[in-house]
Amino acid sequence: MAPPVSALPNADFYAFEDLLSAREQEKLAELRAFLAAEVAPHAAQWWQDARFPTELLPKLAALELSTPVQQGYSPLFTGLVIAEMTRTDTSIATFFMVHHDLFVEALHAFGSQDQKDRLLADALALRITGAFALTEPDHGSDVAGGMETTAVRDGNSWILNGSKRWIGNGTFCDYMLLWAREPETGKIRGFLLDASLPGVHRSRIENKTALRTVQNADITLTGVRVREADRLAGIDSFEDIKHLLRGSRIMVGWQAVGTQLAAVDIARAYAVERHQFGRPLASFQLVTEQLVRMLGNTVASTGMLARVAELERGGYPSAGNRTAARSESDGMAQAALAKSYASRKMRETVALGRSILGGNGIVTDYRMAKVFADAEAIYTYEGSYEINSLIVGRDITGISALR
Q1: For the purposes of burial, counting CB atoms within 10 Å of the CB of 185, is it exposed (0-12), middle (13-18) or buried (19 or more)?
Q2: pLDDT of 106 higher than 90
Q3: How far is CA 188 from CA 85, 234, 385, in A?
Q4: Quick one: how far is CA 19 from the chain centroid?
Q5: CA distance 328 to 394
Q6: Could you report the per-residue pLDDT of 27-43, keeping only the tens digit for each?
Q7: How far is 256 from 262, CA to CA, in rounded Å?
Q8: How many CA atoms lie within 13 A of 116 on its CB side?
Q9: How far is Cα 277 from Cα 157, in angstroms, rounded to an integer?
Q10: Which of 9, 29, 210, 260 might form a disulfide with 349, Cβ 3.0–4.6 angstroms?
């Protein structure tokens, strides 16, 4: 008789959680209990309905997990928070990342004291929500050089015109951290855009097959007037944005870890509990090999992201055998490799898991179909696999294949 799944080893097979402090382990356990009670029972229905559960926000805020590093937690803990959220529901994790790791983190990093006084407390408590409006309809990977949204100075305000696409939280957010180019200087400007201002039009992107709970929006800006007081004074170029994009790219790498943890959980339980030919699926050698390959991918991905967390804490310039002249010194290449590698392994892991469930792997009743579908969004956003590979290639050869 097979042992109960709860008695078997955890998908964290190399015990990375043991590297956390006692305070962090306790907080992660609190998060896990919250997700089990408040998210797991409802996630599939939210996904089916393409509805974001705004009623969850006060409970999510009560966890006090916004920008954990700002609260003295480690980068490893921060990553494991995103992995654990993704393990339960990728969409909730994505909302959390967009709001906290991009919008709130930008307030911490680049906001004036006035901007922090006006917005930070409410944003931390999720009384207001934020979005990160960078990608455009015709510019994703090349948005750094191709940004078409403009910001023209007009006295003590700015006039914004243009379009943004794939903006997570965009349909309901109170504010957008919106990026635009100043035509006169060519500089990239960042604005804390009140989404209710005249000239802001937003519409939900329909018919998605991944992250259906996340409310992605198309944004159109027509003569939107924004005060100079709502410009992020610390932003003058796309280089300034890299701090945020590196952190976000790392967090998406952790999402790839969380997705694999979920796939291992689901497939292992199914293989132990499902019987065919009079015995558990796990008793068949081919199924066992697939499970072990899934676990290996998950452990390898977690190990890479855990090392990136150490580099975040210690500083990137000393990483590897680099010279000061050649090093990008900002950790973007390490973030890119972690995201590209983990997301590639994730694709294999979820495909194996879906296969183990057979026909049941394509219906959301068994969770694996949702995990399988959501993985495709992770593979693409915060830099596609190909773009991240080219970033790393440029770093290790000194020659750019980006054109």
Answers
A1: exposed
A2: yes
A3: 33, 11, 26
A4: 22
A5: 10
A6: 999 999 999 999 999 99
A7: 10
A8: 10
A9: 72
A10: 260
